[in-house]
Amino acid sequence: MRTEIMGVGFDDLTLDEAASAAAGMIDAGGFHYVVTPNPELVDRARREEPFRQALNGADLVLPDGIGVVYAAKILGRSLKGRCPGIDFAGKLMEHMAKTGLRLYLLGAKPGVAEAAAARLEARYPGLTICGTHDGYFKEDAPVVEAIRAAEADVVFVCLGAPKQEYWMVKNGPATGARLMAGLGGSLDVFAGVVERAPESWQKLGLEWLYRLKKEPKRIGRMARLPLFLVAALGERGKAGKRA
């Protein structure tokens, strides 16, 4: 049973539970995909039906941003906490390193995925990264074939939203992979190109503020968070009137 937040149904799981669920999907076979919406993406999904369908059609929908957790509280609904995509990926790679599963990295600028692969294999001894491809491609077919030829079990799709979600829905089954996860700019962090917020900021749910401090040009995007919470208050008001 999912927790519906502004039209998007989230799985109410801890980070460990989410990674365990993903591991179970890999073992089960078939194709599965994971999305990690933040408030900006939930807001977009409210306005764009195809994107909302792509999010809700995922096998796992994890709350990436603290704003989603706040909205859940405003609406009187339960979420155990944030499940940032990059942390979910870390937990999953720990499992993959122990079980011999093969990972493919897709996205970011040329050279970034390769750099990320080298750092990740050093960080997770035993992890097999079977291939990489940058996100600057025009035709899907060669990328699909490359993933299939690499015999990837899991693919981290880092093309940015909504492109990565649509790409997984359209091409995932043809790749032969058993699990895909849409992870936005995670490859830049894995490669060391972008610095992540210190752990103390993460624990306080202020990773968004740290990113704003580092990239002031993001102010326009960050300003949507208060508007998102105001919209949640409006949804609660409507629900109260209907009751």
Find the CATH superfamily: AF0625-like
Neighbour order of strands in the largest sheet: 4-3-8-7-5-6
Average pLDDT score: 91
- Tell me, what is the CATH class? Alpha Beta
In CATH, the topology is named Rossmann fold
What is the number of domains? 1
Helical stretch tally:
13
What is the SS-derived class?
alpha/beta
- Provide the CATH architecture: 3-Layer(aba) Sandwich
Low-confidence stretches: none
User: Radius of gyration in whole Å, from Cα?
Assistant: 18 Å
Shape: globular
Relative strand content: 5-15%
Span from first to last CA? 22 Å
SSE sequence, one letter per element: EEHEHHEHHEHEHEHEHHHHH
Tell how many strands the DSSP assignment holds: 8
**Biggest beta sheet summary:** 6 strands, parallel
Helix content: 40-55%
